[in-house]
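Quick question, first post here. What does this chain look like in 3D?
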Amino acid sequence: MNTTAGLQAEDFDTLDNILDDLRERFEETPQWEFCEGFMAALVCSRRPIPEAEWLPMLLGVDEGEEGGSFADDAQRAQFLALWQRRFDEIQQALDTPVEALDDDKAYAPEVMDVRGAIASLPEEERAEIDDNEIPAFAQVWALGFMFAVENWSDEWAAPKDKDAAKWHDLSLEAIVALTEDDADTPTLSALSEDGPPSVSENRLNAYGEALWAVYDLREIWRNIGPRVEQVIKEATPGRNDPCSCGSGKKYKKCCGA
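> Answer (accepted):
Ran it through. Tokens below.
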């Protein structure tokens, strides 16, 4: 059983600060919510994706170049240590049976209710913000998840079993649905009972379906196991056949001697 301590609010603040610093040198560095979704996909991936693959894909980090690199070895080590703790926390949550998503042991993504935060601002400040660029609830998380799926498509190919393939496709569709905008009228607060309306009921329902989909995807690959590479053995010539090396001799008097 994994006993790694879960991340606290100050730990997520540290991760945000590191990402902000990276963004000074690599402007495409994503926000943590995107990283959170990306990480959930790595946890669910059929094959464990090593750091050497996912780190440059996610952060554009290339230690051989100036752009996109960590400030120093200490910053890199701090980021990766916090990353591993969160990875272990998500993995443990997805491997723990729960009956409801409000269970303390259930996977709860670190997502932001940006629209709710803006709705809480004074009217004059809200007027200065372009609503067209504000992501819907959990949209960035879903985009991070699908970014990993798309970049390791071989690991996310549907299983050969028809029932498992249907289950797999429906689960991914539930997550893809969250990558779309919440076009319905907001009637609920996403993260608090007394906050201003920032999300529609349909969106919250879709969010719940996407979280269960993550559980399902983790379960599918745990049951099926890693892909087994097919080994194609080259046919061996008969003893009296011409040798495959092209010498013109019979196999028994050449390579088969």
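The chain is about 50% helix and 0% strand.
Residues 201-224 form the longest helix (24 residues).
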